[in-house]
Write a structure and sequence with these properties.
Length: about 210
């Protein structure tokens, strides 16, 4: 798991969340995943590269039976909510298991990651934005040059895309000292503007599980 605080700033917590209609309108208008290519210092590049290239299988491990049961309850609840987007159980299970694994690995809230995926691609594996971003988390191809072998077609591979997306969001959270509002804006290439963070936080509510 990459280091970094999991706290959200007071500012991000106080941002008003969009309602259902506003979220739908934003999803229609958004240019998903329009991250801006920036120079990365060697230490950051090394940390991100190491995280992306760690190809451990997305198999959840639990310290005790209660933690495993908690995961299974989460999986069941999320599966019901996702059924309309992914009717096949095995496909749905593999996707949710990988989201769980990659979000936990990066120190991210699974509901946040699912909300971001909903806004970015509406759970479409082969989504491509007008800016050229690809896959579930709408990762820009330049990231494969910075952290991989430059093969942007790999961004359509489920675990690769989720790994890149979670690592990138974790990187932006660390850069913004835990400020979720600013980190989400940076992920979308709209840092400081409210529509995208508000859309993701609004979508996040659908995927929360107690």
């Amino acid at each position: 798991m990459l280091p970094g605080a999991r706290t959200f700033s007071r500012r991000s917590c106080l941002r008003p969340l969009v309602g259902g209609l506003g979220l739908i309108l934003w999803q229609e208008l958004a240019q998903a995943g329009n991250q801006i290519e920036e120079p990365l210092i060697d230490a950051v590049r090394s940390a991100l590269s190491s995280a992306v290239h760690n190809a451990a299988p997305p198999i959840p491990e639990f310290a005790d039976t209660e933690e495993r049961l908690k995961y299974l309850r989460w999986l069941g609840a999320m599966s019901e909510r996702l059924k309309i987007k992914k009717p096949d159980w095995e496909t749905r299970k593999e996707f949710l298991q990988t989201v769980w694994y990659e979000s936990k690995r990066a120190g991210l809230d699974t509901a946040l990651v699912l909300g971001l995926i909903q806004v970015e691609s509406n759970f479409r594996k082969f989504a491509v934005s007008t800016a050229g971003a690809r896959g579930y988390m709408q990762v820009m191809p330049f990231w494969t040059r910075s952290l991989g072998d430059g093969d942007a077609t790999k961004l359509f591979h489920m675990q690769t895309n989720l790994r890149f997306g979670c690592v990138i969001l974790r990187h932006y959270l660390d850069r913004e000292a835990g400020d979720l509002f600013l980190a989400l804006g940076r992920y979308n290439g709209s840092r400081g503007q409210a529509p995208y963070p508000d859309a993701v936080l609004g979508a996040k509510r659908r995927w929360e599980h107690s």
